[in-house]
Structure formats: C-alpha cells, structure tokens
Amino acid sequence: MEVTAWMVADRIFQTIFPLLAIVLIGFVYARKRPTDMSVANKVNIDIFTPALIFSVMSAESFDLQNYYPLAFGALVVILASGLLIWPVCRFIGVKPKTFLPPMMFSNSGNLGIPLIVLAFGESALPAAVVLFLVENLLHFTLGLYILDHKTRLLNLLRMPMIIATLAGVAWSYSDMVLPPALRTFVDMLGQIAIPLMLFALGVRMTSIDFTHWKIGLWGAVLAPASGLLVALALQPFLQLEPQHFAYLLLFAALPPAVLNYMISERYNQEPHLVAAIVLIGNVGSLLFIPVVLAFTL
Q: Which of 108, 129, 154, 227 is the most exposed place for a label (fewest CB within 10 A)?
C-alpha cells in the first residue's frame, strides 16, 4: 500500500494530539486553579515510574540484549551532544554548567515514552523505557557531577528508579514469571506514570518566563539539532535496524527534561535561565518533533 502525505500527516496528528491534549488540560487547569504538583511528582518518581520500569523489564517478551546497540546509541547521543555544544556556550554567553545539562538530558520520560509508544505502538514501550533509563542514569551521575563535583554517586542506590532498574535487569535474565495478580498490580501502577508526567508538564508550562527568551531559543534549536546530527553520524557505524534507528532519532530530537530545572534550583545554578531553556525548548519541540516523525514514519 502506497503511503501518502495525508497518511503520514494523519499518523503524526494521531501521535501528537493525545500528548498535547493532556498537557493542555494540565496547563488550563493550573491557570484556573494554581496547582502544586510537588507531591504528585514525588509519588510519580518514587512509585509509579519505578513500577513502569519494572513492569516492562520483567515482562516475558523483554530481552535486554536486544537493546544493547540502541542503549549505546543513546549514550553516545547524550555525551556527544554535550561535546558539540560546549564550545558554543562562550559564543552565546552562558556558563556550560547552566547550559549543557538541558542540552544533554532530554524529556525522555514525560514526552519520550508516550511519544514513541503512540508513534510505533505498544511493542515500542521496552525500547522507550531503555532510552529513558540510559538518559536518567546519566542525568543522575554525570549530570549531577557537572553541577557539583562532590556529588556522592553511591546515593543513587537509594533511588527507587535505580532499584527498580536493577531489579528489572536481574529479572530479565532469570526464568521467573510474575504471578498474574502481582503482574496486574505492577502494570496498573505503571500505567499511572505516563499520563501523570504529561499533566505535570502542562502544569509546569504555566511558569514560562520569556524574559530570557534568547537563551531559551538557542536551547530550543541546539538541543534537537545536536542530537539529530550525532544520531545520523552514528548510524553508519552502529547499523541499527530501521525501527530502532527511528526510536533513536526521536530520542535525539526530544526537548530538555523538566528535571533539569528542578536540579538547577536545588544546586542554585541559575535556575531562572534553565527554566527558560527547558520551557521554551519544550514549546519549540512542537515544530521539530512533527518533522522527525514525518521522516521516521
């Protein structure tokens, strides 16, 4: 069957609309009723997202070895993006400690997982989770080290998402199967994570500050551009299968993670600038992501 431009456009709409609709609901609700998502976000990070990770990695159909090349590709995209943009920081007049983390660590949770699943179907969920895990592990190791060289990486072992990841990896290499009742319980907890991530992103959008729009605009362009450039240059060496290469391209085009703002606030690393970079970058993704989807679908 011939794929027409209309079919591609319809697929892009079917992928983007549910995500935007949930984000928009969060935005509108928070504008009318000021909403504090701090507790909900903490519960999502501590319970629902770890449940999603373990749910996917403990599934009988999940074989971690199938995703090694994709995980390595994501690792290179993150690291090489930082190296590419590092020299640019002086040109645009921003500190590398402020600008590099948002450029390297993308919105692979709030946006990446639902985007990949909606674009390619439920069978893409394991790949989306693997990409999220690579990004998240680097963010809580290298990302924190960039901001504070005294960060104790052993503290990672206390994080529920890391615990869930280690448990999921161990389970994926075992022959054990979760009892049906326990499987349903874990799956239901995990299904809360993605909609809540999107709703929280909409609430966060209410705090967009256009005072620093220039640095935000630089970030909105450089984050996806650097990631896509690295992914395209990497493919001849990795030779990923077409489906996995499509996942990597979408991952490379994702905007900065909202978590960058939260961490910059914690370390007092110019959070007002990071907020502009993150929020304007996520708005800018409305232009970049449909183009990448048109190329990959």
A: 154
In terms of Cα–Cα distance, which of 279, 158, 260 is closest to 209?
279
Helical axes 96-104 vs 271-296, angle rounded to 10°? 30
The token pair at 16 is 């983007």
Phi, psi for residue 106 in degrees, rounded to 5: -95, 175
pTM here is 0.81
Rounded CA-CA distance 92/286 in Å is: 24
Residue 180 CA to residue 134 CA, distance in Å, equals 29
Contact 232, 253 (CB under 8 A): no
Coil, helix or strand at residue 106: strand
Distance from C-alpha of 74 to C-alpha of 227, rounded to nearest angstrom: 9
CB-based contacts of 215, cutoff 8 Å, min separation 6: 92, 94, 99, 273, 276, 277
- Give the span between the Cα atoms of 216 and 113, in whole angstroms: 24
> What interhelical angle do 68-92 and 242-252 show, nearest 10?
30
Q: What is the dihedral of CA 193, 58, 227, 114, to 10 degrees?
A: -30
Residue-level pLDDT at 209: 65
Residue predicted with more confidence, 90 or 263: 90
Q: Give the whole-angstrom CA distance, residue 134 versus residue 129.
A: 9
> Does pLDDT of 2 surpass 70?
no
Check: CB of residue 101 under 8 Å from CB of residue 146: yes
